[in-house]
Amino acid sequence: WRVWAIYLVLAANLSDQQALRQACPSCDASQICNCSSMGLDFIPAGLTSRVTVLNLARNRIKHIRSQDLQQAVNLRALLLQSNQIHSIDEDSFQSLAKLELLDLSNNSLADLSPAWFGHLFSLQHLHLQGNFYSDLGESSPFSSLRNLSSLHLGNPRFSVMRQGNFEGIEVLHKLWIDASNLSRYEQGSLKSIKTINHMIINLRNSNIFSEIVRDLLHSVTWLEVREIKLPVEKKRLVQNSTLPFRIQKLTFKDASFTDQSISQAIVFLKAITSLKELEAIDCMLEGKGIWDTKEIARSGQSSVETVTVINIIIQNFHLFFDLEGMESQINKLKRLTVISSNVFMVPCNLARHFSSLLYLDFHDNLLVNNRLDETICKDAWPSLQTLNLSQNSLKSLKQMAQYTSRLPKLNNLDISRNNFGEIPDVCEWPRNLKYLNLSSTQIPKVTTCIPPTLEVLDVSANNLKEFGLQLPLLKELYLTKNQLKTLPGAAPIPNLVAMSVRRNKLSSFSKEEFEGAQVGAVHLSLMECHRSLVVSLICVLVFLLILILVAVGYKYHVVWYLRMTWAWLQAKRKPKRAPPKDICYDAFVSYSENDSEWVENIMVRELEQACPPFRLCLHKRDFVPGKWIVDNIIDSMEKSHKTLFVLSEHFVQSEWCKYELDFSHFRLFDENNDAAILVLLEPIQSKAIPKRFCKLRKIMNTKTYLEWPLEEEQQQMFWENLKVALKS
Fold first, then answer.
1. pTM of the prediction?
2. How far apart (Å, rounded) are the C-alpha atoms in residues 410 and 130?
3. Which of 75, 114, 427, 717 is deepest in the core (most CB within 10 A)?
4. Any idea what the CATH number is for the domain that residue 722 is in?
């Protein structure tokens, strides 16, 4: 009954493995099972401890049973998003102690059970968003997840957040809550989490915005609020809160503001003294810029140093005021980015008050030359070091250079993707300019308008046919996508370290193009000069070497001998002779297929029908199907009293027989016993035996062997002698 039980278990496992291969073919080849988008209605059976990643996303799974994942004890990632899961047995994940990522997002879960996560001690990333639950229950479903790093939850039905819902979580790298329809928030619900590096919350209910922010002042480093319509609050954001605060960056995305709410927010946010960065992305301003500048000024200075505005939409853009009165609020700013927001000018008086600004980015706006004199007026932006005016509507490079020369500390200027078209011979630039980006500006040539102080110059994607400027300090030069036919000369740019000339019309290089003290002093190796050629030669040589090794191995049966040697070494560990109770045969017969008629029809009949009969082992009849040939030979020889070799010219020429001789050479003759019996069907010289079987040749030269007589009267004596040898 034990054998029968083992058989049933093996049969069941085999059936499960076949079912797994059919349901998810990729599981058969690696530790990663990608079963996504295969129309599965259930988790396939046959998962084993070998699987570390299981992707079942975008199927039709509705229920997870206790036994579905029981054997997948080494699973690290389980992806179940975008199914139809509405129920999970409480102990379904009990065996997944090594699981690090669990994604159950976009399913139909109406409740979350703490029992699901009770044994997921290694879990770091949990995704539960996009389900049907309206709350997280009365307590915390995450209390056992001590190693959790990121948590994503919520859905359009999520409406209540209670105290204790996040008990057990102390530190999170990222927390994302879709609370767009949250209607009730119990004060302190998020306060139990001590540290959150980045929190994203989708929130439309402006009435609970302030309560959530107050709970996060001491825990969140970067707070990102999405979809909010910023309210006008009666109470300040910071009330009865103790210092120090943790929040350093506040982002509004897809939010909307009014003149009144933004004025109030500027005042209230000043109380958060740890706040260093403000960001608004894809937001809408419903107003004309009529802000309460007097109240803003009375509230004191802000601690914010970086402001980023990307793609802001101002409904009454044509009526928007120039923010007069905000001068006192901007003198501490160090970085200002306003991208894709239709900026066409900055009033001179406002620009002069950006006294600490180091970085200014007006990429993708509507700046034009005739307004640039106002934007970069005298004494404006006095500390500015980096200026990005790329992708605007600037037309005159001469005016551009003239206006930026008013910026005494400017060293980095990007004016790419403007349509200058022409370039003058002489320009006036800032004295300390080191980096200049003129790529994609439609300039047809380069002139001495380019300042000699540059260390980096980018003139890619223009219509340049030559480059002959003398730039003694230049270290990097980018000339990609031009019409160059020759390289720039080396002498005018002696300090050049890097140059890019991709996608030009270069066809040859002259000696003069490489002249220069530094270039001449460089001694490049063969690999550096001809990298592609050397790599190609190495690949060809490696390929030829592999080809030769394969050919030699095939010719001399190296693989076979390696496997045979390994089998012999394994066999050497076994006892020299099998115990008598394990002997099944009187003799194992080794013969050529061409001699099978004599062996099977004459010798087998004579010996197995004798009285008493002899038990012979023949490879055709007695080898175990599916078992490796060497193992069959070893087992048969070990279970046989003698080994009978039927020698002939066919035997010596047969590859099969050579392999059996090889093993007999290792196994039998190495033991110095008399287990081998040689029968010659036809006269054969010992020198016909392969030289590497020296011991077999020695036996033929020193010991008696039986020869099959052609005369019938002598054949009876042959059988008698053979039977005596088998019995000895």
1. 0.68
2. 49
3. 75
4. 3.40.50.10140
